[in-house]
Amino acid sequence: TCVANRKPCENMLFGMGNPLLDISAVVDKDFLDKFGLKPNDQILAEDKHKALFEELVKRNKVEYHAGGSTQNSVKIAQWMIQKPHKVATFFGCIGTDHFGEILKKKAEEAHVDAHYYEQNEEPTGTCAACITGDNRSLVANLAAANCYKKEKHLDLDGNWELVEKAKVYYIAGFFLTVSPESILKVAKHASDKNKIFCMNLSAPFISQFFKEPLMKVMPYVDILFGNETEAATFAKELGFETDDIAEIAKKTQNLPKENTKRQRVVVFTQGKDDAVATKVTMFPVVDIDQNDIVDTNGAGDSFVGGFLSALVQERPLEECIRAGHYAANIIIKRVGCTFPEKPDFH
């Protein structure tokens, strides 16, 4: 009933990923060097980063925000849509602890229908966002997020019903390190029912070290997101032999696809430059004064969130990209992946 006038309805957008609490602080180059971090990167925490989390928390201006790439994106999509509430559903695993309670509260405040798998063996995951100027180096300690179990959560009738209710699906590549079998189950469902399954390359390390699970899901991917660095790494791993981003997008679009009723769309963002998409080439980015940029952390997630909000309402690709740019622009001027009360997007 609610789709009649392209109005979104509850649980129409489904997201699954790593729910993390972002711990962000402004650091200096010495701090990055000490822990061997690049200014702009996303990595998974190793033993050598344990001290990093302890030191970051001791900094005077540390901020805590609900994070995790997919959760950020569905939250932004919900914010762009506003009403009804709970258009966005989110699945992921947390611990039974204080940080887990914060994530639950934040999801509720954002009107996202979050159904977490809760376990008490691992604490809720965290992500250290080490900010220097316009750059952010992200170090994720997945902990509980890494404990998501298909048979303990996704397969349960009540949960799978929520998956079936959706029309658009979005899972960041980051989740490939956690539960590729959960991703495949959702992706195959979308493909079989001619619904839209979206994925993100997420970070260079995904294409480098998780290429096998990534390529298993690729035939089911209707829309693929990524930034220029991720696109270049992906191209290298697949032996595309080109560093032209439009060319990489074209070759990615032509990779094998299960559901031939939908042609794959590839959307690569290039920071300050125009976004490249495979049906229509360049889309202008709204110009921002460098001085207005507070924090680029979450800009990619919010681009996807804006895009998804328009996609759920069956808008054309140009509109989806415009909504993506709009959302990213708002977020870039604020700390963390946070947003004002209402969007002003028409």
Automatic annotation (TrEMBL):
PROSITE patterns: PFKB_KINASES_2. It catalyses: adenosine + ATP = AMP + ADP + H(+). ATP dependent phosphorylation of adenosine and other related nucleoside analogs to monophosphate derivatives. GO terms for molecular function: adenosine kinase activity; ATP binding. The active site is at D301 (proton acceptor). Its cofactor is Mg(2+). InterPro entries: Adenokinase, Carboh/pur_kinase_PfkB_CS, PfkB_dom, Ribokinase-like. It comes from Amphiprion ocellaris (Clown anemonefish). Its main location: nucleus. Keywords: ATP-binding, Kinase, Magnesium, Nucleotide-binding, Nucleus, Purine salvage, Transferase. Residues 31-340 form the Carbohydrate kinase PfkB domain. Transmembrane segments: none annotated. The keyword Nucleotide-binding applies. Its EC number is 2.7.1.20. This is Adenosine kinase. Pathway: Purine metabolism; AMP biosynthesis via salvage pathway; AMP from adenosine: step 1/1. The keyword Nucleotide-binding applies. It is an enzyme of class 2 (transferase). Monomer. Binds 3 Mg(2+) ions per subunit. Gene3D superfamilies: 3.30.1110.10, 3.40.1190.20. It comes from the Eukaryota. GO terms for cellular component: cytosol; nucleus. GO terms for biological process: adenosine salvage; AMP salvage; purine nucleobase metabolic process. Belongs to the carbohydrate kinase PfkB family. It is found in: Nucleus.
